[in-house]
């Protein structure tokens, strides 16, 4: 009987992790499509982004409900508890990523009616690729329980911030130089900020994955990535 209970619980945890991975795939696609509404002005994707966001919301609610039920009925401890809580926390971060992607797509729709500012759009595209790569890496780290990959995402958080700061200065320069670009520039600023926040959520997920695997929290200060690799990716 005890073996049967343990097996059933393992199956529930695996099913929960699979749903989180499914959410991750939806979030990745939503971010990619949202960026296309800005960089390629593909307005056919706006509704797709909105529909994916609804699916993310529904999955987040379902994962939260099942997680609470698992904790109440199974009373997990140690790694099982960490796996259970991690699934819920990661789902919450993915739901927020979906909201941010939806906001990007909506602003992309507004920008479609204005004259494109090609250099700034390219800067947004570069930042978007960086954020999308970070999101993919951290989701891969979750599905493969790859501690080093999770630490890699966490340690390179400053890269997104640096892109945002550079883009912010570039946008201000354009808007001061040509008042006609102020409206479009303001929308691009909000898009850049949303991308930065998606990067922050990827970092949050990296911290959750690290704790799930190791049972230890990452330090407040981020050492250099090379030093982390030499130390075997241990904080």
Describe, in plain words, how this protein is organized in 3D:
The protein has helices at residues 2-39, 46-74, 78-111, 118-144, 147-155, 157-177, 182-214, 225-230. It is mostly helical and 235 residues long. It has one domain (2-230): Phosphate transport system protein phou homolog 2, domain 2 (Methane Monooxygenase Hydroxylase, Chain G, domain 1, Up-down Bundle), CATH 1.20.58. It is elongated. The termini are far apart. Mean pLDDT is 88; it is low at 224-235.
CATH class: Mainly Alpha
Distance separating the two termini:
40 Å
SSE sequence, one letter per element? HHHHHHHH
Biggest beta sheet attributes = none
Task: Return the domain count.
Answer: 1
Mean pLDDT: 88
Low-confidence stretches: 224-235
Output the structural class.
mainly alpha
- Total number of β-strand segments? 0
CATH superfamily: Phosphate transport system protein phou homolog 2, domain 2
Q: Write the CATH fold name.
A: Methane Monooxygenase Hydroxylase, Chain G, domain 1
What is the global morphology? elongated
């Amino acid at each position: 009987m005890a073996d049967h209970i343990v097996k059933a619980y393992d199956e529930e945890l695996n099913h929960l992790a699979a749903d989180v991975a499914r959410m991750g795939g939806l979030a990745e696609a939503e971010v990619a499509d949202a960026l296309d509404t800005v960089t390629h002005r593909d307005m056919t994707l706006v509704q797709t982004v909105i529909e994916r966001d609804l699916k993310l919301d529904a999955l987040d609610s379902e994962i939260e409900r099942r997680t609470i039920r698992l904790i109440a009925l199974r009373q997990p401890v140690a790694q099982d508890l960490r796996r259970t809580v991690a699934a819920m926390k990661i789902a919450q971060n993915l739901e927020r990523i979906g909201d941010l992607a939806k906001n990007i797509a909506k602003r992309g729709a507004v920008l479609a009616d204005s004259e494109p500012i090609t250099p700034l759009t390219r800067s947004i595209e570069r930042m978007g690729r960086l954020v999308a790569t970070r999101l993919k890496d951290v989701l891969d780290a979750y599905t493969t329980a790859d501690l080093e990959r999770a630490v890699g995402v966490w340690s390179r958080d400053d890269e997104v911030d640096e892109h945002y700061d550079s883009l912010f200065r570039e946008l201000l320069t354009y808007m001061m130089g040509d008042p006609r670009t102020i409206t479009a520039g303001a929308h691009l600023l909000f898009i850049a900020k949303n991308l930065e926040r998606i990067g922050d959520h990827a970092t949050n997920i990296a911290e959750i994955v690290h704790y799930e695997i190791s049972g230890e929290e990452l330090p407040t200060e981020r050492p250099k990535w090379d030093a982390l690799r030499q130390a075997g990716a241990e904080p």
